[in-house]
Design goal:
Blueprint (H helix, E strand, L loop, with lengths): L8 E3 L15 E7 H5 L2 H6 L7 E8 L5 H14 L3 E6 L1 H16 L6 E6 L11 E6 L2 E6 L7 E3 L10 H20 L5 H23 L4 H21 L3 H13 L3 H17 L2 H13 L5 H14 L14 H16 L13 H13 L1
Helix pairs in contact: 3-4, 5-6, 5-7, 5-9, 6-7, 8-9, 8-12, 9-11, 9-13, 10-11, 12-13
Bound molecules: nicotinamide-adenine-dinucleotide (NAD) and zinc ion.
Length: 363
């Protein structure tokens, strides 16, 4: 039996931020990061809350949030006892908030209304039942319907300040979500429709926002595409591109979207080498008005080049060859056990993943 669900109510479009003024709240906790707090973006958002609401801010989130910062957030939330929690930031802030609420809930906290406001057009975390937390050198994907926010507010003006490099990384994450959802062994007509729409927007609008961060119509479409891709993958699942990126990111701390972008052509070629697993790429290409899977792969490689993304992991300069070889077996093991691997279209062995890592490292 197949299922499709969307828990979060979506608020989007020009006046979406006014939803904040209608929230019934007296005690609000905002979970965010230091940059968003210090740049004034948090107060730009909280000014829309009802005037009587008391606002507390937890701004210790860092990229690839650790279990320790989640635990500190759990401690804080019991002190604040909010009736509304707002995750404000990129995937790291939204995931940290999900995990804080999840673990606090296990300790008896009554569930407050949970609203996610993304400030990157990337993870789709505002609508997914995923949260990725780093424990030691390992990124752990939590998957539970209880993690999904109650509401998601999309206002592209919050993404205007994202610099080109992070625009590229997060935008390529959207592409990877949509493509992995499309070829997933749990894909359905419903998730395919969403994935194709997200892919169309990414191919058209990601180069625009990369070259001109003030292109607000394109920023708006990317914010919606990110959310649309999130709805696709929270229902269809992801695949080994994400499994490989999680294990690498836990060890070497490179931006999640950049790792996905570098890995993607290698993962596509691995699947396309067998006609059975090439088929969904051919189908996806045709839905996008491209000739076939090879043509889709060319479009991905061209987009990556236009965004200045490296061809190989070695070109990042931050992953030492010796350290990579030392850890490649452990990373493959972690990727094999990742929660994204069971929905990959092609069954994989540990050796397949070692080979993919080495291909992506050396080119
Ligand atoms: N839960 C999910 O469904 C899901 C899906 C994919 C990835 N993830 C996880 O999400 C995390 C990545 O999230 P991300 O790619 O959004 O990046 P991020 O949240 O880690 O943020 C990256 C950087 O961008 C900055 N930033 C955010 N908004 C900005 C803005 N408006 N202007 C300027 N700078 C801004 C942040 O301060 C930070 O320095 C990873 O941990 C990844 O594993 C989660
Ligand atoms: Zn991702």
């Amino acid at each position: 039996m197949n299922q499709f669900s969307l828990k979060a109510k979506l608020f989007f479009g020009p006046q979406a931020v006014e939803h904040l003024s209608s929230l019934a709240c007296t005690n609000v906790l905002v979970v965010t990061d230091g940059f968003l707090q210090e740049s004034g973006m948090v107060s730009k958002m909280t000014q829309y809350l009802p005037s009587g609401a008391h606002v507390s801010v937890y701004s210790n989130v860092r990229p690839d949030p650790s279990q320790e910062l989640v635990d500190a957030g759990v401690e804080m939330i019991f002190g604040v006892k909010p009736d509304v929690v707002i995750a404000f930031g990129g995937g790291s802030c939204i995931d940290a908030t999900k995990a804080i609420l999840y673990f606090a809930g296990q300790k008896g906290l009554a569930h407050p209304y949970f609203l996610a406001i993304p400030t990157t057009a990337g993870t789709g975390s505002e609508v997914t039942n995923f949260a990725v937390i780093t424990r030691g050198d390992t990124k752990v994907a939590l998957i539970d319907d209880a993690l999904a926010p109650d509401g998601a507010l999309l206002d592209a003006s919050f993404t205007r300040s994202v610099p080109p490099k992070i625009t590229a990384d997060t935008g390529m994450d959207v592409l990877t979500h949509a493509l992995e959802a499309y070829v997933s062994n749990q894909a359905t007509t419903f998730t395919d429709a969403l994935a194709v729409k997200a892919l169309r927007v990414v191919f058209e609008d990601l180069p625009v926002v990369f070259h001109d961060g003030d292109a607000m119509r394109a920023r708006g479409r990317m914010a919606e595409a990110s959310c649309v891709a999130g709805i696709a993958f929270t229902n269809a699942g992801l695949g080994i591109n994400h499994s490989l990126a999680h294990a690498l990111g836990g060890r070497f701390h490179v931006a999640h979207g950049r790792l996905n972008a570098i890995l993607l052509p290698y993962v596509m070629r691995f699947h396309m080498a067998d006609s059975k697993y090439r088929e969904p790429y051919d189908r996806c290409a045709r839905e996008l008005g491209m000739a076939d899977a090879e043509d889709l792969l060319r479009h991905v490689i061209d987009l990556r080049a236009e965004l200045g993304v490296e061809d190989r992991l070695a070109d990042l300069g931050s992953i030492d060859a010796g350290a990579f070889e030392e850890h490649v077996g452990d990373m493959a093991e972690a990727a094999l056990g990742d929660r994204c691997t069971p929905t990959n279209p092609r069954p994989v062995s540990r050796q397949d993943l070692v080979n993919l890592y080495r291909d992506a490292y050396n080119g």
